[in-house]
Amino acid sequence: MEKFVVEGKQRLTGRVKISGAKNAALPILAGALLTGGTVRLTEVPELTDIYTMLEVLKALGAKYTFSEGEVVLHTPEITSAEAPYEQVRKMRASFLVMGPLLARTGRARISLPGGCAIGARPIDLHLKGFEALGAKIEMGHGYIEATAPKLKGNTVYLDFPSVGATENIMMAAVLAEGQTIIENAAEEPEIVDLANFLNNMGAKIKGAGTKVIRITGVKDLDGVNHTVIPDRIEAGTFMIGAVATHGEVIVENVITDHLTPLIAKLIEAGAEVIEDEDQNALLVRSKGKLKPLDIKTLPYPGFPTDLQAQMMALLATVPGISVVTETVFENRFMHVTELNRMGAKIRIEGRSAFIEGVESLTGARVKATDLRAGAALVIAGLVADGVTEVGHIFHIDRGYERFEEKLRGLGAKIYRVGD
Ligand SMILES: CC(=O)N[C@H]1[C@@H](OP(=O)(O)OP(=O)(O)OC[C@H]2O[C@@H](n3ccc(=O)[nH]c3=O)[C@H](O)[C@@H]2O)O[C@H](CO)[C@@H](O)[C@@H]1O
Ligand SMILES: C=C(OP(=O)(O)O)C(=O)O
């Protein structure tokens, strides 16, 4: 198994170009199943999650090419409506093919995604939406089967603004008869990107990016060209890395508005963030002493849970007591024990972590427990005294394109080595 070896006490300096967003590309790829036409996507990041989604689509009948960030895909017909355990187990986002399959063929059989390191992650809200649109749901042998000869528009209230449920229901509703209203919808930028993609195919979606999304069903959808939005979580990770190492980094290819909650917190901590609107870039730097923070993760436009672990790596060496409260997932603190092995002083009480800033972290052998936990440990490794070895980096490869290469471009000494 591969690991990262990170030399500590490194300042990140220079420029880094942010890739297309994994969490926008995945639902958009699933949405490509809604048309028999050709879909051409650019700025698709080369990540294991993207390859997994392409494999899922291929098994369902899609044909594609993928090179240099461009996917050209078409699905003349759906040859199978089943996503098996091996694929869904690798990546929960495979479940996003359920809405498109149901819309296009009236049937979908998908392995139940299990829990994972960050929580139980049920799919009840996805199913509630499909049922409201007239689908019959049956469960057994670890699979969910949904059938609906013809989906019919309806109003769906989401008890929590789930990103995946909003996307899945939106994709099911675009070909349904009549109007669907999703209330208490998630407002994440990736949902807006998916809606723009679908609308350019001929869908009629209004209100994406707000709490109420209205979808008027259409008969069919055409092929389309689409460029995936920049990855705000990748951008945020490099920004946090710049501040944690007291460096100076220009992150290029960003949409500043998507980063508002992070920028606010970095400035509150005493860092400088300067926008270069013409270049779609942000300069991030930190010179003096930083101040502790109180952070609460929330659905967008709140502080993203996907940047919580990285922020904790930063706060671990900020003098004073910081408090980080995780409200989106019930168990997203697996990185805490690993950070503590590096000398951090973090105590968990319920859904909050109390971080007492220490003078310095010390390099150690640690393990990535999930994608963002892995990124946090790399940041901690850059800050620490001595050498850190981060194991289980297959988690990091799920979501960061050429991570170590980009970090080396900023002066970091980080190497990928086999065991
Ligand atoms: C591929 C992708 O885009 N992943 C992102 C997506 O995940 P994902 O779409 O899985 O996240 P959700 O917004 O659905 O989950 C948020 C919360 O809602 C709960 N829930 C969700 C669905 C459901 O049917 N029932 C239910 O109770 C979950 O267990 C969790 O506690 O949004 C998360 C929240 O911003 C991010 O951390 C993930 O990176
Ligand atoms: C949690 C994440 O992804 P997923 O929903 O695919 O597990 C993430 O991107 O941080």
What integer is the average pLDDT? 97
Structural class: alpha/beta
Task: Please indicate the count of domains.
Answer: 2
Strand content bin: 25-35%
Rg is 21 Å
Query: Could you say what the CATH architecture of the largest domain is?
Result: Alpha-beta prism
Number of strands: 24
CATH topology of the largest domain: UDP-n-acetylglucosamine1-carboxyvinyl-transferase, Chain
**Distance between the terminal alpha carbons, to the nearest Å?**
6 Å
What's the CATH H-level superfamily name of the largest domain?
Enolpyruvate transferase domain
CATH structural class of the largest domain: Alpha Beta
- Shape estimate: elongated
The main sheet comes to: 4 strands, mixed
Protein name: UDP-N-acetylglucosamine 1-carboxyvinyltransferase
Active site: 116 (proton donor)
Domain Enolpyruvate transferase: 6-407
GO cellular component, one term: cytoplasm
What does this structure look like?
The chain has 419 residues and is α/β, with parallel strands linked by helices. The protein has 2 domains: 3-19 and 230-417, Enolpyruvate transferase domain (UDP-n-acetylglucosamine1-carboxyvinyl-transferase, Chain, Alpha-beta prism), CATH 3.65.10.10; 22-217, Enolpyruvate transferase domain (UDP-n-acetylglucosamine1-carboxyvinyl-transferase, Chain, Alpha-beta prism). Helices cover 32% and strands 26% of the residues. The chain has helices at 22-31, 48-60, 85-90, 98-105, 124-132, 163-173, 189-200, 232-244, 260-269, 308-315, 334-341, 371-383, 394-397, 403-409, and strands at 3-7, 13-17, 38-42, 63-67, 70-74, 82-83, 107-111, 136-140, 143-147, 155-157, 179-183, 204-206, 212-216, 224-227, 248-252, 272-276, 281-285, 294-296, 321-325, 345-349, 352-356, 365-367, 387-391, 414-417. The strands form 6 sheets. It has a 4-stranded mixed sheet. Strands 2-15-17-16 form a 4-stranded mixed sheet. Strand 22, helix 12 (371-383) and strand 23 (387-391) form a beta-alpha-beta unit. The longest helix has 13 residues, at 48-60. The radius of gyration is 21 Å and the shape is elongated. The model has no long low-confidence stretch (mean pLDDT 97). Bound molecules: uridine-diphosphate-N-acetylglucosamine and phosphoenolpyruvate. Residues 23, 26, 93, 119, 121-126, 160, 162-165, 186, 305-306, 328-329 line the site of uridine-diphosphate-N-acetylglucosamine. Phosphoenolpyruvate (PEP) is lined by residues 23, 92-93, 118, 306, 371-372, 399.
